[in-house]
Structures are given as C-alpha cells and as structure tokens.
Amino acid sequence: MVRLSHRVAPLDESPVLVANPPANDTNRSPQCPPQDPSRTEWALTLPSPSPGELLDLVCVGFGPAALGMGVALQDACETSTVPLNYRPKVAFIESQANFAWHVGMQLPGAKMQISFIKDLATQRNPRSRFTFLNYLWTKGRLNQYANLSTFRPSRIEYQDYFNWCAQSFSNLVHYGEEVIDVSPSRQSSQSQSVDSFLVTCRDVKSGSSLHYRTRHVVVAAGGRPNIPSALAHGYSAQTNIIHSSQCMTILPHILPDPVSTCRIAVVGGGQCGAEIFSNVQTAFPNAQTSLIIRGAALRPTDDSPFVNEIFDPEQTANMFHRKDPLRAASIIIDKATNYGVVRLELIERIYENLYAQSLLSPPGSRPQNRILRYRTVTGLKSSPSGAAIIICENATSQYEKSDEPVDEQLEFDAVILATGYVRDLHLNMLKPLRQLAAQSTCSSGEMEWRVTEDYRVVFESGKVDRSQAGIWLQGCNEKTHGVSMPWIQLRN
C-alpha cells in the first residue's frame, strides 16, 4: 500500500504529495545532474495515470502554482526509493489548449517584478534541474544572461522558462478541459466519512463531460478579470472595451492599423496599467493615449529589503496566526508591495517621455499622451459612431484650483481596463461540498471556506477522512495568509 505524506511550503501555492517507499524496497533512483526536463530519460518520473483509476491527486489548473507543485513532485521522485508503480498518480486539469502564462500581458520590454531566484525550484531545492539558471544553461544563454547583470528577466523569457518546465508534464496534463465542480465520490465503509472526490469536467471543444476520481484535490485555478459592477454592462456589450489580460491578444484586432490616429484609454494606476500606457505609445505612435487614475500620481512599489521580508515563509505563518483585526491592518500596509503601485524605473520612464513630449508641444495644446488624475470611472457606454465613452467623476477641483467639470464623458476608440483580478473561482467548483465544510461567513454575508495554515480546507469533524482525502486552496487565501500568498515563490 502506498503511504502518502503532505509537505506544504508556506509560500508555495501547492501542497506537495511525497510518496514514501514500501519498507522492503531498496532500489534508489540516481541523483540527477542539471539536465533538460524534456529529455526522454526523465519522461516517466511521475507515471501516466490509467483511464478510470483512482488518482492520488488532481490539480485544478496548470499555471505557475500547479507547475511548481509538479516540479516539487518530480524532484522528490527523482531521488526517491519508490519504484515507478508506487509513485503518486497525478493529473492536472487545464482549460487552456496549452500552457500559457499571462499571454495577453507579454508586452515587449516588460520585466518580472521579482528575482529569478524566486523561480519554481531554487529556494526549495537549488540543485533541481528545473531552476531558471539550469534553463539558461540548457538553452545556451547562461553567460549572456550573466552579462546583463540583472536579477529580473523579461516577462517573455520567463514565459519561455515556464514552457520549458511544463514540457516534463505533458503526460499528466489534460489540456482543453474545464473543471465544473468537485463532489464527494464515496464514503468509507467503516467510518462513513468521505475518502475520495469526483472532479467533473467539460471538454472545451466538444462539450462532453469527463470525470476523475481522486483522494486529494488542489484548486489552483488562478484569477478572473475584475470588472467593477458599474462597468460590467459596458464591458460585456462592447468589443472595443477589454481587460488588461487581453491587451496583446485582442487590442491588435480592435486597432489593426498601428499608425492610425486613434484614441486609447487605460484605466488603472497599478503596474499593469502603467506598462500598457507606456507600451501603446510605442505600438501606436500616432495615437492619443490617456491613463486614467484615481489618485494624484503613480505610486512606486515598496520593494526595499526589509519590506520584502513579508515574502519569507515564516512571515506567512506569522500572518496566519495573527488575530483577525491585526491581520487585516497588516495586509493593508503590505499591499504597497504589489497593489496599485508601479516600479520606480517605469514611473521615471513615463515621466521622462511626458516631459520630452512637452518640449515639442505648443503651449496650451492637448498633449498626445496624458495622465488624467483624480478620476473615478462610474460607467461605460457606446457612442452613435461605436466609440467607447467613459463616464467619470472628476475630483480635480477638490484638490487644485481648477474649473474642470465634475462630470465628464470621454470618448475613445479602445479602452483597456487594468482593474486587476478576482480569485474566487473555487466558490462554484466546491458548491457540492458545502454540506461537509466547516464554513465561515464574511462581512458581505457570503460563505467563505476555512483553511488551515497549510491551505487545507477544514471539514466538519468526521465528514472527510483526513488520512485518505483532502482539498487545498491555492492563490485565494489573502485574507488568512497575506499578500505574498498568490506569488510564484516556491520554498520549503
């Protein structure tokens, strides 16, 4: 019988199942030197599940969090004494057709906001073949990258690193399948508690239903675009209003002529909004661009060394054990590291570009590229010509000597909403399990799923056999684990 234990990194977005070998097994896998994960000798480190068999783990989603979990499992198995037929049976369910990470935000020149040391493996196992440095070595670019003297690779290169790692899991990932829900599968004949779950999926192309039975489930489904309720109707009704996640994939179809004199608005003063505002000035050199923000200015990210300690594993544990009011206050302070803020070098580049523009613009003329401050977007609608109209409350007169109107309607050919993400996809997925859960209620009256420090869902006593089955939530526990929780930092 396979014995499974759980080892969960506090900042890892994925609990790790580690298979313990049978007592009489003496065969040990060789220690792996740095190699290309796609090489055939590593293809069966984790076995391919057979159709219909009971799985040890199903992971909902195959983004960086799930990929990091797969990497940890591969690393553990490569140095394990467990023979292949005793290793965990794992499946990843991903709705996209292939591995893709923020495809719509792969802007030219955009860089990662974290060090490459915080990759899928290094801080957990620096000797892993899945480190970013081994990726560079395998691709023949290690020396050239060293000459760049930077810890922050481009976002495009990091996407390629993820793809390189994902190749090792092609036998485990079911692409093009959308998870509908997770329900109890069966009960133990002795205790009457649930000892496995049924994951129901839909084939994205055919619409047919698929089912997986598993003892453990990790929900790492990522986020969905956050569209404020006041903007939801306009967003859904007009094709020229998009979310930032669609920038590189949809915007070229909205504005097919890059040299046209179009009008582009970006709503949002965080990193994504600033990156897009900077990018469209290059991609559409004749366009009039506007960045619409609530505050007086773009605010810089606080990534100083002492502040960055909030991403250390022990700090996540400390955050979890704080009392609710103190934790909530701490999270508000910590959001200056990631929410509604922009890296300083990008702020400086935008400022320099706007300054250079002012040198060439006639006095009193409308700037080609501008930041509209003190605006709150309250609605979206369409003009008779099909252009998008942004309805704003302009508070400039409250902060400055100004005769600008309070109510504004601004017309654009394309609007990009850099309004962030909501991480609530687990709520509908887990509805069939509500009668088993030890639930809590938030201030809005909605049900929340209680989790432990290691992200495990808390079920009522006796309802689920903890020794046989469990569910973990990844990337949606900010209220309990802090702002570092969704980040791709995978550590012991």
Provide an overview of this structure:
- There is one protein chain.
- With 492 residues, this protein is an alpha/beta fold.
- Helices cover 24% and strands 23% of the residues.
- The protein has 13 helices and 21 strands.
- Strands 3, 4, 5, 6, 7, 8 and 21 form a seven-stranded mixed sheet that branches. Strands 10-17-11-12-13 form a five-stranded parallel sheet.
- The chain is globular.
Main attributes?
single chain, 492 residues, alpha/beta, 7-stranded mixed β-sheet, 5-stranded parallel β-sheet, 21 strands, 24% helix, 23% strand, disordered N terminus
Produce a short descriptive summary:
With 492 residues, the chain is α/β, with parallel strands linked by helices. The protein is built from 13 helices and 21 strands.
